Amino acid sequence: MNTDVERLRAACERDLGDPADWPGPFGYPDALALCIIDAIYVTGTRHLTVEKVVERYRAYRAAQGGNADTDGAPELLANVEELGGPLQWAAAIGNRRPTSTAKGAPLRSAALVEVSQALVDLGVRTTADLRAVVEDDGRGAQAKAAWCAVPGQRSGFTWRYLVLLAQQPGVTADPGVAGYVYRELGAAHGDDVAALLQAVADEAGWDATALHHAIWRFESARPGRRELPSTA
């Protein structure tokens, strides 16, 4: 057995808990609309609640003859407008959760519209656009700043989660996940992180995308960089 794969698997078994309790395979590599919905609604709640919102959006779009799994930000904005605005969208598809516990905090559906419009204004209409933007330091910083300026998104947690949701499975590794791998195997380790995670998943019988997500959430919760969903 490859020593690095064995060591990394042991670390995952030590840190990540029972794989049966990990979130299932996640992400929407072709649907920026679903990435936005998930990212905006994920904080401070069980992911099952988010899944219900996503499924209601999928069902609504299917009834229209559309396909939520290829919708971009413009389609999401059109959906909100068709339903009459953020308040009506919250009643029909989302929920009435506010962006924070602060008095008068706007609904998450309102934040969803703001971030979607900000991305469209920057030319980010699809997941492919988002992936291209985050590869460009200048444009990526601009897009992140626009996202984080929306109520409830200041910490950057939901921005990083958005980018993670939009990635093609197995192609790249989030920097936080790469940091975990380097910490366990040595900072000078040169092997491709995504390939190592895939090898661990194959050896252990795990889903590679779920493994990536489990490591990402573990890293998000580490002392000194604690930005759990419930804090945003």
Automatic annotation (TrEMBL):
<protein>
    <submittedName>
        <fullName>Heme peroxidase superfamily protein</fullName>
    </submittedName>
</protein>
<keyword id="KW-0575">Peroxidase</keyword>
<keyword id="KW-0560">Oxidoreductase</keyword>
<dbReference type="GO" id="GO:0004601">
    <property type="term" value="F:peroxidase activity"/>
</dbReference>
